[in-house]
Specification:
Shape: globular
Number of strands: 5
Radius of gyration: 17 Å
Number of helices: 8
CATH topology: Rossmann fold
CATH superfamily: HUPs
């Protein structure tokens, strides 16, 4: 007989960046317990794992790091290889070289396996189709597809929550402000591809997206 699903708990795919950290505090208000799950896939800026660990410790969230080192062997890219520089823009008609083939598919698969062992069916991820940097595995159609596939594969009704799916970066900053954690997100998270906490390097695509979103947030909502 299948165990009763605990809908008061959730598993959050957590990088320690702006989006997933905003969702950490969103989830803490929505669920009785949040379990954060990070992945070590050989990323150059592995400081993000320490950042994720520090945030979870500081704000009393259970945290686990799973070893996904094989991913960097299968899909070498600018986030995992020191000899590949991050492109400032994606090539015309192509994907940015910071795209890691299969990353979100693998992360959501392992997060769902992890969740099922604890009778949890809510898995939260910070993907956004509005500000998705050209990554195909951040689209709503992919999330709907993987949710169906995982539920069928494990005969278990998963819910993949994507609260940021239709929000741009300015609206994500507003969510942090509404949650009362704007300063935490601004100063304690790591989004930068070059591994610099807070405002980052200011030059990589992730930093520019984050900064432009903050400027727009201040203009529209403050």
């Amino acid at each position: 007989m299948q165990n009763i699903i605990d809908k008061d708990r959730c598993v959050l795919v957590f990088s320690g960046g702006q989006d997933s950290s905003t969702l950490l505090f969103w989830a803490k208000k929505k669920f009785k317990e949040v379990i954060a799950l990070s992945f070590n896939y050989g990323q150059k800026h592995d400081l993000e794992l320490q950042c994720a660990k520090d945030i979870c410790k500081k704000y009393d969230v259970e945290h686990h790091i799973l070893d996904m080192g094989l991913l960097s062997q299968l899909a070498p890219n600018a986030l995992t290889r020191t000899d590949i520089k991050v492109d400032k823009e994606a090539p015309e008609g192509g994907l940015p070289n910071t795209f890691v083939d299969g990353r979100n598919m693998i992360f959501l698969t392992f997060a769902s396996i992890f969740a099922k062992q604890r009778n949890i069916n809510h898995v939260i991820t910070g993907v956004s189709q509005s500000d998705f940097s050209g990554y195909p595995d951040c689209r709503d159609i992919f999330i709907k597809s993987i949710s169906t596939t995982l539920s069928l594969a494990m005969d278990y009704q998963f819910v993949i929550d994507t609260p940021l799916m239709w929000l741009d970066k300015a609206e994500t900053w507003k969510m942090a402000d509404d949650l009362g954690v704007l300063d935490i997100i601004k100063n304690e998270t790591l989004t930068c591809y070059n591994g610099i906490i807070g405002n980052g390097c200011g030059e990589c695509p992730a930093c520019k997206l984050r900064k432009n979103g903050y400027v727009e947030f201040k203009r529209k909502f403050k």
